[in-house]
Amino acid sequence: PPWGPRPAPAAPRGGAPPRPPAPGGAPGGGGGGGGGGTFTRIIPPPVFSEGFQTSRSVPENAQPGDAIGDPISARDNQGEAVTYSLSGADAALFTIDAQTGQISIAEGAVFDFEGEQNTYQVTVVAKNASGASASIRVVIKITNVALSGIANDYDANGNEVIDLDEAIAAVNAYTAGTLTREQATEIVKMYFAGESAS
Question: Any alpha helices (H) in the chain, and if so which ranges?
């Protein structure tokens, strides 16, 4: 009869009836867009075992190439290799081993505890193979080395530095035969070392 239920549309041969289009999507699709998102992997930087700041000390008579304390080391949680570099205002006075993080004294650097500056600052940067990096501030303190032996005898003013007058006195003592050549040379070298650091 005309008021009875309407028959369902016939299904295509060999399949189910077509679905209506989804909002924002193509007919039969699963909704708008349809594609997967882009996944970005975030690589964490290395982690310094001493945090964000540490310190080292070195005697004032240390020579170029001498190591300054223990290496500044960082750990990479991904197991990647870590390389080290130096930056900062005082970086030119020091070097760092790119593989170990060992800081050393640079060629030509001279330090004097009694001079105008006896504390220096550098920044060590650690970078992993993926390019992620971290940094740590390192304060390097110059420690005093007291004069000993014959040099202490010629430190007339007791300032633990060989001044010009004291170096001249040592040369005069050598000329007079009361000081050996080696002793006089040692004292004169201490004078020039102090001049270079000032």
Answer: 149-153, 164-176, 181-197
Give SS3 for 54: strand
Q: What is the residue whose two structure tokens read 């909002």?
A: 23
**134-to-66, 83, 122 alpha-carbon distances in Å:** 26, 11, 14
Bigger pLDDT: 32 vs 62: 62
Q: Which domains does the chain have, with CATH numbers?
A: 47-143 (2.60.40.60), 149-197 (no CATH)
pLDDT digits (tens, 9 = 90+) for 141-182: 999 876 666 666 777 676 777 788 888 988 998 888 887 887
Q: Which residues on neighbouring strands pair with residue 85, listed in sequence order?
A: 125
Q: How far apart are CA 127 and CA 135, in angstroms?
A: 9
Q: What is the side-by-side strand order in the sheet with 82-87? A: 53-59, 133-143, 119-128, 82-87
Closest CA to 123 of 108, 131, 110, 133: 133
Segment 29-36 long-range contacts (CB within 8 Å, at least 24 positions apart): none
Q: Each residue of 95-133: pLDDT tens digit?
A: 999 999 999 999 999 888 878 899 999 999 999 999 999
Structure tokens at 146: 């007291």
